[in-house]
Specification:
Distance between the termini: 55 Å
Helix content: under 10%
Order of helices and strands: EEEE
């Protein structure tokens, strides 16, 4: 239920299909009075395409880590 301007609204979900401009419901509608509706289209997501496949070891020799990488930083001496 949703409260808006002192009125309560109840949302109901019904499965259906859309084909050639028509909506075909797969279930009975539990509402018998005229009411406002919202239609949400659930389209399939397109899979992302991988342009360049990753090559293991492709950066070998291009990246280096200094020998003192794990040594404490001089800037942090006051906090240690």
């Amino acid at each position: 239920m949703y409260l808006c301007n002192e009125s309560y609204f109840m949302f109901t979900t019904i499965k259906g299909n859309f084909d050639k401009g028509q909506i075909y419901l797969q279930e009975e509608v539990p509402i018998t009075t005229k009411t406002e509706v919202m239609v949400i289209f659930l389209g399939e997501e397109k899979k992302a395409t991988i342009k360049n496949k990753r090559i293991p070891g492709g950066l070998k020799g291009k990246v280096s880590i200094p020998d003192d990488f794990n040594n404490p930083l001089d800037d942090l001496k006051d906090y240690m």
